[in-house]
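Dear colleagues,

As part of the handover before I leave the project, I'm documenting each prediction I ran so the next person doesn't have to rerun anything. This entry is a single chain, and its sequence is reproduced below.
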Amino acid sequence: MEHIHQGYRGLHLLFDLNWDRLLYIGTLAAALGCGALMGAILN
């Protein structure tokens, strides 16, 4: 049980360290998608 608890804490730490990177990648993907949509509509 202790091993599972340690693994969960490690996973939680990784998520805490990387959530802003995931948000950055999601924002970048959304901006590229919106730009492609605008380009298709205006062309």
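The chain has a mean pLDDT of 83. The longest helix spans residues 2-42.

All the best with the project,
I.
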